């Protein structure tokens, strides 16, 4: 059973940066594809980014447009989401997720989810 804990959320002004971290425990982290999703109340959860086991392959949601970077450190069981050029529409709860089948933009492919961390971008 993999447990995921997100940290690093908070408030930032438009154009600012934040780095989210996700710590994994209880499973074989290095064999899982990892992803970040986000959700605004009343809306569906949205794909943000995913990364494969080795970190050599990444994929992003269309809205990212080069502003975010996903990375991982298998030795530390950590995955990160570095966000820059942030906009008010990036305000959401951000979730870390693990997929034993590998990286995916589809949330149904993910087996484990964190509790989420709130990100608020003010104008």
List the helices and strands and how they pair.
Blueprint: E1 3-7, E2 10-13, E3 18-25, E4 33-39, E5 46-51, E6 58-60, E7 68-73, E8 78-83, E9 92-99, E10 112-113, E11 117-122
Parallel strand pairs: 2-11
Antiparallel strand pairs: 1-3, 3-8, 4-5, 4-9, 5-6, 7-8, 9-10, 9-11
How would you portray this structure in words?
The mean pLDDT is 95. 0% of the residues lie in helices and 50% in strands. It starts with a strand and ends with a strand. The chain is built from no helices and eleven strands. It is mainly β and 123 residues long. Strands 2, 4, 5, 6, 9, 10 and 11 form a seven-stranded mixed sheet that branches. It has a four-stranded antiparallel sheet with strand order 1-3-8-7, with no helix packed on it.
Summarize the structure.
With 123 residues, the protein is mainly beta.
Key structural traits:
11 strands, mainly beta, 7-stranded mixed β-sheet, 123 residues, 4-stranded antiparallel β-sheet, globular
From the spread of the alpha carbons, the general shape counts as globular
List low-confidence stretches.
none
How many beta-strand runs? 11
> What sequence of helices (H) and strands (E) makes up the elements?
EEEEEEEEEEE
Calculate the mean pLDDT score and round it. Answer: 95
List the total number of helices.
Answer: 0
User: What oligomeric arrangement do these chains adopt?
Assistant: single chain
């Amino acid at each position: 059973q993999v447990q995921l804990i997100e940290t690093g959320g908070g408030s930032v002004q438009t154009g600012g940066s934040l780095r989210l971290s996700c710590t994994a425990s209880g499973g074989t982290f290095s064999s899982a594809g990892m992803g970040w999703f986000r959700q605004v109340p009343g809306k569906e959860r949205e794909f943000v980014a995913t990364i494969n086991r080795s970190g050599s392959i990444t994929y992003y949601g269309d809205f990212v447009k080069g502003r975010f970077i996903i990375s991982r450190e298998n030795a530390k069981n950590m995955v990160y989401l570095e966000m820059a050029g942030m906009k008010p529409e990036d305000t959401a709860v951000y979730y870390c997720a693990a997929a034993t089948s590998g990286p995916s933009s589809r949330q149904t492919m993910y087996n484990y989810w964190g509790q989420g961390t709130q990100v608020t971008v003010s104008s």
